[in-house]
Amino acid sequence: MRCVQGRAVLGLDRAAVLRLVEPYREVVIDVGTGDGLFAYTHAAAHPERFVIGLDATRENLRELSHRAARRPARGGLANVLFVWASVRRPPPELEDLGHELFVILPWGDLLTGLLEAEPEVLDGIAGMARDGALLTVVCNAQVWEEPVPKELRGFTPLTVERVRDDLAGRYARHGLRLMSASLLSEEEIASLRSTWARRLAHGRVPRFVQARWRVVRPPSTDRAGTGS
Ligand SMILES: C[S@@+](CC[C@H](N)C(=O)[O-])C[C@H]1O[C@@H](n2cnc3c(N)ncnc32)[C@H](O)[C@@H]1O
Questions:
Q1: N or C: more exposed end of the chain, with fewer CB within 10 A?
Q2: CATH of the domain at 95
Q3: Would you say residue 180 lies in a domain?
């Protein structure tokens, strides 16, 4: 698995990943982490959790992965790791690892995969989670206001009702059971420590749809556990 540390890319095998996460109570995976601010601040606020920020674009990860590798006095954090990979081909090293997963303000083929319940994306996310893990997805519902970006023309707008009436059934086929779907309040949006949440909330209150899913694996597809 390719881990970014500033300008460097390091390889980590499964045994090395397990050694890294072993001292921590829980593993959190932030899928489509972008510049990694959410992952970094989550790791700083939860020293009992090991946080993995995953993104398909290596350059996005450079700055905060560099900061995380510095001495603690200079922003270094031992409990965060940045992985360069697409969720469509998740590193096998992360299989069954996450107790909690986040997808905050996805874009590109991560967003379209979630909007269309594409098996590759849903299985990619669920495959990095343990049975019973919680997945929180926050999407910007305002992008369907005119002018709709060309990447999203032709895609059905995301609403709370669409999550409940359409996506819930389709996600269930990939082991994701809907727990709740709601519009985030102004306070909830303000507390989202992500660069894109801040950018979109600048000078206005955006409309973010949040859906929370439980990863439920049928016993027949249960894979080997990773301990604890
Ligand atoms: C709008 S940014 C949001 C970043 C961050 N979550 C935030 O809130 O600031 C969307 C991110 O999703 C990443 N992304 C898009 N497709 C992806 C894929 N297939 N696998 C992993 N990351 C992907 C992009 O590289 C980009 O960094």
A1: C
A2: 3.40.50.150
A3: yes
| pLDDT for position 202 | 87
Full-prediction pTM beyond 0.90?
A: yes
Rg (CA), the chain: 17
**Domain encompassing residue 81:** 2-221
Residue 151 C-alpha to ligand 1 middle, in angstroms? 14
Q: How many CB atoms lie within 10 A of CB 22?
A: 11
Report yes or no on 31 lying in a domain. Answer: yes
Which residue has the least CA distance to atom 4 on ligand 1? Answer: 34
Q: Categorize the per-residue pLDDT at 225 as very low, low, confident or very high, splitting at 50, 70 and 90.
A: very low
Residue pair 213/171 in contact by the 8 Å Cβ criterion: yes
Q: Are strands 8-11 and 2-5 parallel, antiparallel or unpaired?
A: antiparallel
Side chain identity at residue 76, one-letter code: G
Q: From the alpha carbon of 37, which atom of ligand 1 is closest?
A: 9
